[in-house]
Amino acid sequence: MTATNSEAVLPAQGIEAPRSGRIDPKYLRSSASSGSFEMVAWVFMRVSGAALVVLIFVHLFSNLMVGEGIHQIDFAFVAGKWANPVWQFWDLTMLWLAMLHGTNGMRTIINDYAEKDSTRLWLKSILYLACAVIIILGTLVIFTFEPCLLDDAGNLMDYSPSFCESVVN
Amino acid sequence: MWSWVGHRITGVGIFFFLLVHVLDTSLVRVSPEAYDAVIGAYKHPIMIMGEIGLVGAIVFHAFNGLRIILVDFWKQGTRYHRQMLWAVMVLWFVTMVAFSIRHLMIFFEGWEGF
Ligand code: HEM
């Protein structure tokens, strides 16, 4: 390692993209036809990553850093948040972007380390199944959630957020 | 090189946490009792340390991810990548000191013992 960045002295133009044309095609696992998907995935990782910084930092701040922080988190707290469509939309966007970003990252890692075709196929099948299950489950939970539950006698349950009193009675 | 290893390890760790986190949140559809019981586990002192570790992983992955994005899209990105790695570590440290102090103070204020 030298004191200055070796990259700094290279001209900005005239450098080929990493590995372009330097690897004999017979050593490449994927055919050229998957190129456009990989390009979209590469851009998606960066766009979703930038959005996730905002989504996740606000999520952590509003749940853990304000109010009573970790102690405030219970059923009524979640119900109170999802009574607001902004938080529903916030959590939904975060769920989809984080799962797709994470799944695509895991796909890259599987491609890097699993050398046998059959191993890669297995691991990726499990990965995509898990991704689909979590996205569908999470989406259903956000939209079918019922905050004001009643007990058998028709009274509001203790766990209900305070706004339920004006809704039910 | 190690920043790439760190990015990969934190990415995998966060991914598995996210799977669990969506599952535990789904308990609001089972019953308030079930949700409160399971989420109560996050209020145990051991879990408080775990949360600081998890947030540390997320904050590193987030800041280092922004650095990767700048290296790729900003004209001067490759020239300053090393300085930006320093910035990532400094910002990570400052953020984590602030988060840890606040999280621990809130925890001890409301803690009712074992
Ligand atoms: C907080 C905001 C985030 C930012 C700015 C961010 C940014 C990035 C970037 C730029 C990459 C490199 C992609 C590439 O080389 O093509 C990446 C990879 C990855 N990310 Fe994120 N990410 C964030 C959140 C997340 C979350 C929430 C998860 C998990 C659900 C996650 C999991 C991963 C994984 C598994 C990889 C692959 C690592 C590798 O290939 O070495 N990231 N991230």
Task: Summarize the structure in words.
Chain A is mainly alpha-helical and 169 residues long. Chain A has one domain (38-168): Fumarate reductase/succinate dehydrogenase, transmembrane subunit (3 helical TM bundles of succinate and fumarate reductases, Up-down Bundle), CATH 1.20.1300. Chain A is built from 5 helices and no strands. Chain A has helices spanning 35-65, 75-82, 85-113, 117-144, 164-168. In chain A, helix 1 (35-65) crosses helix 3. The model of chain A has no long low-confidence stretch (mean pLDDT 85). Chain B is mainly alpha-helical. Chain B has a single domain (2-109), classed as Up-down Bundle (3 helical TM bundles of succinate and fumarate reductases), CATH 1.20.1300.10. Helices cover 82% and strands 0% of the residues of chain B. Chain B is elongated and about 55 Å long. The structure holds protoporphyrin IX containing FE. Protoporphyrin IX containing FE (HEM) sits between chains A (42, 45-46, 49, 52-53, 56, 98, 101-102, 105-106, 108-109) and B (7-8, 11-12, 14-15, 18, 58, 61-62, 65-66, 68-69). Chain B: Its main location: membrane. Chain B: One of its GO terms (biological process) is tricarboxylic acid cycle. Chain B: Heme binds at residue 61. Chain B: This is Succinate dehydrogenase, cytochrome b556 subunit.
Give the topology:
The complex is a heterodimer of chains A (169) and B (114).
Chain A: H1 35-65, H2 75-82, H3 85-113, H4 117-144, H5 164-168
Helix pairs in contact in A: 1-3, 3-4
Chain B: H1 2-26, H2 32-40, H3 45-73, H4 81-110
Helix pairs in contact in B: 1-3, 3-4
Keywords (chain B): Heme, Iron, Membrane, Metal-binding, Transmembrane, Transmembrane helix
Cofactor (chain B): heme
Pfam families (chain B): Sdh_cyt (PF01127)
